[in-house]
Each structure stands twice: as structure tokens, then as C-alpha cells.
């Protein structure tokens, strides 16, 4: 019997997995990368596992996992959270964003079967990052301690199925309430917040000073030890295969029941969800309308910010990039209290960096990511005037936000407010100028990939944002000569990059 | 309809003299001469790659010609593009839209680009939305509109600044018959009001019924132009339809043999 008979479950599954793999343009490259990642993770897992076991032996003279149960529990929740986030993204893509559902639902295949296969394909894809991180440790612990550690394989599978069970109804509910695009953005925002919380949460045990660390430690050690749910979760990680198997079976049944129950209604939601993204037209009779009067700057400011704010995914892309770049330095500052920790949080300096990068992003959208370049070129206005109007239009609201933040900061210490405003404005203008000088027409829908092939511009933007942040930091620390050096370097770089 | 007048009424709405353009050594347009009178509805026909779109894009200022002169109502479009653009509108086959703006916001933006008084622009927008059956969709984002509706919004954008010269490149492609009819009616109404229209199209039936005069391009050159009667005389085929004439003139010998 041919397992891959058209219309059969394995045939559909192969179709799903092939589509998932082709998200990457070169699937063979993806396979090589996965292979390398597995080898590297094994190389990392061996010394860590061995070191932990040696430490255990030294401390207790036997293999006792009870001291690290809360740590295992925290790791479990982290992994589950990340897998749920991953599954949400995959579910939205597989159920609502991919354009092949009309084809599948118009075929003689049952919608229940299509949905069930798609659900298990989500499990299969969600399992990959999990497997790369966890399974090398399972293998090493199985070699170094005992074979029962291989039950982590079962744990990984269970986590992936449970994550999908959580993600699928959640996505359906979100899409019904918010529409596809907003649901996708919300998923991304929650993912970023979750990642940031975990990144900062992992630092709770470090840093001798600061109210947050103290509060975190107090919460973590409440009742003389870590919270019970972490210990309980840790025990789940070390659980024998049978209970895990029961959970896996239960979750799989829930997934199948969901597909069965929801299959019919699903087609209708998928078909109408994209239309819900936009507001429906109102059937009203013609009446009076009013247009606002604007100069060119106002005209472009309204247009550009409307386009950005109405596309939550784009807005998220503009803001999340700089925020993610700031995680490592922010953690460093968090642990070491750069500057005068009593008066000025080091995070204020990061505002300069973030506003510069955001300014660069929105300037790119306005200049290079113009959706209707021919319309703009047809306008009876000098093109350099339009370029200038666009730049000022997108920068003005950012500078207003920076100004408001600086005024607030000035109540703490006026010098700090001035330093942040001056350096922040200069940084934002510098990054916007780069995008005015180097206009490379691109698709705003591919905002995240806008610097592909233009790494020099990306580097210049990063360098300018960093130099102005450095200048602000040193101005706050009253090392004015270093501020001068940073400002000179930034201006020198701008002069080098200047294009008429 | 009130419209700004040039100080001296120009003899030609559009005058192209020896306009040429090449891309990577390939001649897309070979020294074309074209004169279109004010108020005329002119059809520009030609097979794919004949040079129609390149000619029109040079006319509206989206491409710079390698040589030649372009005048729009007597204004040198190469010397003073802003003044020339003030008088024209361009509607390509792909709508020039912003997906996240509503039709109303789009028209407000376009009117602002052409520096039209806000009140006057609002009146015109209101009339156009009503005329094109877009009033009920005025607050719907363009992303949610059908292709036909998007094309109508784009047409409203082209007309909101009341151009004296309207240049359209395949505006009816992909539209259903009802929307095609609306667009055609609106175009005829504009020519009745004195607007000059240049229409590049493959739909010969539409050209035959709408335009006053036809120009046929082949391999970057204007090989014939005139009314249908004049073209019949030029080709020596008394009872020929526009399709017959088009096939005789627009398709190159090599393509015809192939």
C-alpha cells in the first residue's frame, strides 16, 4: 500500500512539512544549519552536564536533584512559554495567513482532516527549536547518568503538543475578536514581552544593589525557599515516562477533538478574517465632507504616521528592533548600575539610542518604503521639497516625545534633561539624514529585511546612534571632554557619509 | 466647469517632438512626434513592448527622455516640470494607492499634493465618490477594496485636482463590465467638459467607441495616426475595423510571420 497516496494523512502531512520547510528559500541550507546547531549544542551540553554533576557530587556526595528542582521548574516554564509563542505564530500562519486554504477546502478532503493534519504539522515545526535546546542535554545525561534521562524526548513532544493545544483555540479566539493582522501583532508583542521578562528575570539573582533585585529575591525566596510551583514543575521535568505519556495522550485527544469540533466553522472564519482587518464601509447617502488644510510637512506627517500606526506589525517592527538591540547593554546596566544609580537610571541613555534607531526606521519607511512613488513624483512640487517635508513630518512627533521625556527628566536634574534632549535630537536627525541621503526603494512590508545588501548603511545608523548615546552618557557623568570626542566622531561620520 | 487658464491658450494639449528613450542600448521609443489638440480623446494603441507606456511615462515626467521636447499646454515639461504636472494626471493599470488609507484620506492627500483649496477639494471628492459609487466605501481602507474599486479610487485621485490633460495606461484592465461602463461614462463626461484624454489600451472595442483619433505604435515608433476613416484610407482597406487596422499596422512583420 502506498503510504503517500494522494489525499491520505501522510500525503497531507508531507505537503504541510514541505510548505513549512520552504519558508526558507534554500531548505538544504536550513537542514545544514539545524545539523550544525545540534552538533554545537551537544558540544555545549557535555561540559555543562558534566560540570553540574561533578558539583552535585562534591556538595552532597550523591546525585540529588532537589536543590535544582526550582531551576528546572523555571526552565520548564520558560521553554513552554517560548514554545507557545512559537506555536501561536505558526498557527496564525498555517490557519489564517497562508493562501492555500481555499484550494484545500474546495477539494473533497474533509475540513476536519485538513485541520487535524495542520495542527500536528504545527506540533512538528514547534518541536524543532525545543529539540535543539533540550535533547542534547537528554543525550548527555543519558550517557553520564542513566538512560531514563531519555524520557526528556517524551517531555519535548508533550510540551510541543500542549503548546499547540493552548495556541490553536487562543489564535481562533484572537482572530475572531481582533482580526488576523492585529492577532499576529499581539502575538509578536506578547512574545517580545515574554522574552524581555525572562531575560530580566534571569538576572534576579545577580547584582547586589537596586530595589528590583531585592524585591525579586524576596519574592523568589518567600517562605524561606523558592515558590512551590517551581519545585513542582521541576519534578514534572524529572517525571517518569508513564505520567508524561498520559499527558501527551490527553493533549493529542484534545487537539483531535478541537479539529473535529471546529473543522466546519473554521473555513468560514478563515474566509472572512482578512476582510475583518479593515473597517467595513457604511452604506450612507452622500453628505458633506471636510478636508483639513495643511502645508506639505503637515500633509506628509499625517500620511506617514497614519500608514505606520495603522499597520501594527510595521509599528512593532520599527520599535522592536532597537529594543532587542538594547537587551544586552540594558542587562549590563541593570547589573552594574552605569552612572549615578541614585539619581539617573542608565536606561535614560538608551532612550537616545532607541529614538535614533526608530527615527532611522520611520525615515526609511517615508523615503525608501514609499508605497506610491509614482504618485509622489507626479506631484507638481520639487522632489527635494517633498523629501524634506517627509523627513520633517516623520521626525517631528518623535522629537516631541523626546522633548516631553526630557522636560520630565529636567525636574530631576536639568542638566540630564538637556543632555538627553540635545543628544537624542541630534541622534534622531543623524539617522534620518542617512535615510534621506541613501534612498534605496524597497517594500515596506519587508521592513525587517530592509538592510539586506545595505549593511554599510545599517552599520552607519548603529554607529551614529551609539556615538550620540555615548555622548549623552558622558555628558550626564560630566565627563565633558569625552562627550566632545563622541560628538566630533558623530559629526565626522556624518560628514563622511554626506551625499549631495 | 471653472479651471485655471494659461495666459495664452496653447494650440496643443500635448506636443512631443523627436522624443526618444533607450534602455541598455535597446531603443524603446525612437524619436516620436505627436500633437494632441485640447479637448481631444486620443487612443494610443500598440502591441506589448511597442513603447506606449514608455512614451506616456516620459510625458508625465516619470522618465527622462534621452532627447526631444515635451510641451504640455505650451509649457516645456522638461524645463518646468512642476508647472506641467499641475495640469496633468496619470492613471496607470496598477492603482497608485496607499493600502492603509481610506478613499477619503487618499483624495485629501492627493488634493494636498496638488495644492487644491481644501473646501474645493472636498466638494470635488464628494462628487467623484458619489459618481463612482464609492461613497459607501469612503471610510474603508483601500486594502479591503476589490481591484475594481481600487482602480476607481485611483481614478478619483487623478480627477480630484481637475486636470486639463488626463493620461491613462490600460485603466480598464481587470475591471468588470459594470465598472468599465462607469469609468467610460466618466471619461466621456470629462472630454465633454473640455478635458484632453490620452488612453493607452489593448481593448480595441473600447478605443473604437471612445476616442476621436488613434495613434498606432510599433517597435518604439508611431507608425500611423488619425481617425478611423483616415486609417482606413492609409491602409487601403475601406471596410476594415480598428482590429483589422491594428493587426495590419501594430504587429511587426517578424511577429506576424511567427
From TrEMBL, chain A:
Q: Which stretches are transmembrane?
A: 28-48, 68-88, 115-138, 150-174, 186-206, 236-258, 313-334, 346-366, 387-411, 417-439, 455-473, 479-497
Query: What are the alphabetically sorted keywords of the record?
Result: Membrane, Transmembrane, Transmembrane helix
Q: In which domain of life is the source organism classified?
A: Bacteria
What is the protein name given in its UniProt record?
ABC-2 type transport system permease protein
- Its source organism is Roseiterribacter gracilis
UniProtKB/TrEMBL annotation, chain B:
Organism encoding this protein: Roseiterribacter gracilis
Q: SUPFAM superfamilies, per this entry?
A: P-loop containing nucleoside triphosphate hydrolases (SSF52540)
Answer yes or no on keyword rRNA-binding. no
Q: Where is the ABC transporter domain?
A: 14-244
Pfam families noted in UniProt: ABC_tran
Instruction: Identify a single GO molecular function assigned to this protein.
Output: ATP hydrolysis activity
Q: Provide the transmembrane region boundaries.
A: none
Descriptive protein name: ABC transporter ATP-binding protein
Amino acid at each position: 500500500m502506498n503510504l503517500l497516496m494522494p489525499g491520505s494523512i501522510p500525503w497531507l502531512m508531507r505537503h504541510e512539512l514541505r510548505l513549512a520547510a520552504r519558508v526558507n528559500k534554500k531548505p538544504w541550507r536550513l537542514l545544514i544549519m539545524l545539523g550544525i546547531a545540534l552538533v554545537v549544542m551537544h558540544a555545549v551540553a557535555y561540559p555543562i552536564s558534566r560540570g553540574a554533576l561533578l558539583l552535585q557530587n562534591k556538595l552532597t556526595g550523591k546525585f540529588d536533584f532537589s536543590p535544582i528542582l526550582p531551576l528546572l521548574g523555571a526552565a520548564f516554564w520558560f521553554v513552554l512559554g517560548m514554545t507557545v509563542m512559537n506555536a501561536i505564530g505558526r498557527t496564525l500562519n498555517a490557519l489564517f495567513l497562508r493562501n492555500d486554504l481555499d484550494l484545500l477546502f474546495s477539494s473533497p478532503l474533509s475540513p476536519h482532516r485538513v485541520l487535524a493534519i495542520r495542527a500536528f504539522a504545527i506540533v512538528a515545526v514547534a518541536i524543532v527549536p525545543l529539540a535543539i535546546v533540550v535533547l542534547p542535554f537528554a543525550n548527555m545525561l543519558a550517557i553520564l547518568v542513566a538512560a531514563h534521562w531519555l524520557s526528556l524526548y517524551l517531555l519535548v513532544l508533550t510540551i510541543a503538543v500542549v503548546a499547540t493545544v493552548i495556541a490553536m483555540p487562543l489564535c481562533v479566539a484572537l482572530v475572531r475578536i481582533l482580526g488576523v493582522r492585529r492577532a499576529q501583532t499581539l502575538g509578536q508583542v506578547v512574545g517580545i514581552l515574554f522574552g524581555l521578562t525572562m531575560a530580566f528575570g534571569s538576572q534576579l539573582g545577580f547584582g547586589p544593589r537596586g530595589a528590583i533585585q531585592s524585591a525579586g529575591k524576596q519574592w523568589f525566596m518567600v517562605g524561606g525557599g523558592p515558590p512551590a510551583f517551581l519545585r513542582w514543575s521541576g519534578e514534572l521535568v524529572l517525571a517518569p515516562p508513564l505520567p508524561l505519556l498520559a499527558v501527551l495522550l490527553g493533549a493529542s485527544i484534545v487537539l483531535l477533538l478541537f479539529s473535529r469540533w471546529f473543522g466546519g466553522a473554521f473555513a468560514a472564519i478563515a474566509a472572512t478574517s482578512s476582510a475583518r482587518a479593515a473597517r467595513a464601509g457604511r452604506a450612507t447617502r452622500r453628505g458633506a465632507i471636510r478636508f483639513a488644510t495643511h502645508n506639505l510637512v503637515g500633509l506628509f506627517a499625517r500620511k506617514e504616521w497614519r500608514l505606520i500606526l495603522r499597520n501594527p506589525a510595521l509599528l512593532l517592527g520599527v520599535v522592536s528592533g532597537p529594543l532587542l538591540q538594547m537587551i544586552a547593554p540594558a542587562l549590563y546596566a541593570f547589573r552594574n548600575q552605569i552612572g549615578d544609580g541614585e539619581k539617573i537610571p542608565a536606561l535614560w541613555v538608551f532612550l537616545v539610542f532607541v529614538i535614533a534607531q526608530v527615527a532611522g526606521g520611520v525615515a526609511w519607511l517615508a523615503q525608501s518604503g514609499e508605497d506610491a512613488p509614482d504618485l509622489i513624483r507626479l506631484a507638481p512640487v520639487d522632489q527635494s521639497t517633498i523629501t524634506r517635508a517627509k523627513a520633517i513630518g516623520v521626525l517631528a512627533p518623535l522629537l516631541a516625545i523626546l522633548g516631553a521625556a526630557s522636560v520630565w527628566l529636567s525636574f530631576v536634574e536639568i542638566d540630564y534633561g538637556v543632555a538627553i534632549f540635545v543628544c537624542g535630537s541630534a541622534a534622531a536627525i543623524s539617522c534620518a539624514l542617512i535615510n534621506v541621503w541613501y534612498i534605496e526603494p524597497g517594500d515596506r512590508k519587508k521592513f525587517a529585511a530592509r538592510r539586506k545588501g545595505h549593511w554599510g548603511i545599517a552599520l552607519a545608523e548603529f554607529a551614529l546612534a551609539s556615538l550620540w548615546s555615548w555622548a549623552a552618557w558622558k555628558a550626564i557623568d560630566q565627563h565633558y571632554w569625552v562627550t566632545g570626542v563622541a560628538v566630533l566622531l558623530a559629526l565626522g561620520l556624518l560628514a563622511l557619509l554626506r551625499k549631495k | 466647469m471653472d479651471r485655471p487658464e494659461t495666459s495664452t491658450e496653447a494650440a496643443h494639449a500635448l506636443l512631443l517632438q523627436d522624443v526618444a528613450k533607450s534602455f541598455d542600448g535597446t531603443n524603446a521609443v525612437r524619436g516620436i512626434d505627436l500633437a494632441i489638440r485640447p479637448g481631444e480623446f486620443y487612443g494610443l494603441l500598440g502591441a506589448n513592448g511597442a513603447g506606449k507606456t514608455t512614451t506616456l511615462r516620459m510625458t508625465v515626467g516619470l522618465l527622462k527622455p534621452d532627447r526631444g521636447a515635451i510641451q504640455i499646454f505650451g509649457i516645456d515639461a522638461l524645463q518646468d516640470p512642476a508647472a506641467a504636472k499641475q495640469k496633468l494626471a496619470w492613471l496607470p493599470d496598477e492603482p497608485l494607492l496607499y493600502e492603509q488609507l481610506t478613499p477619503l484620506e487618499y483624495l485629501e492627500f492627493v488634493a494636498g499634493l496638488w495644492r487644491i483649496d481644501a473646501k474645493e477639494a472636498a466638494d470635488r471628492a464628494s462628487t467623484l465618490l458619489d459618481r463612482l459609487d464609492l461613497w459607501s466605501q469612503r471610510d474603508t481602507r483601500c486594502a479591503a477594496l476589490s481591484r475594481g474599486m481600487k482602480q476607481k479610487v485611483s481614478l478619483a485621485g487623478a480627477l480630484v485636482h481637475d486636470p486639463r490633460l488626463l493620461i491613462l495606461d490600460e485603466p480598464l484592465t481587470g475591471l468588470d463590465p459594470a465598472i468599465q461602463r462607469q469609468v467610460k461614462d466618466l471619461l466621456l463626461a470629462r472630454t465633454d467638459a473640455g478635458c484632453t484624454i490620452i488612453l493607452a489600451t489593448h481593448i480595441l472595442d473600447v478605443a473604437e467607441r471612445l476616442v476621436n483619433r488613434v495613434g498606432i505604435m510599433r517597435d518604439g515608433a508611431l507608425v500611423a495616426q488619425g481617425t478611423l476613416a483616415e486609417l482606413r484610407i492609409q491602409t487601403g482597406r475601406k471596410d476594415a475595423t480598428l482590429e483589422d487596422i491594428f493587426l495590419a499596422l501594430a504587429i511587426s512583420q517578424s511577429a506576424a510571420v511567427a
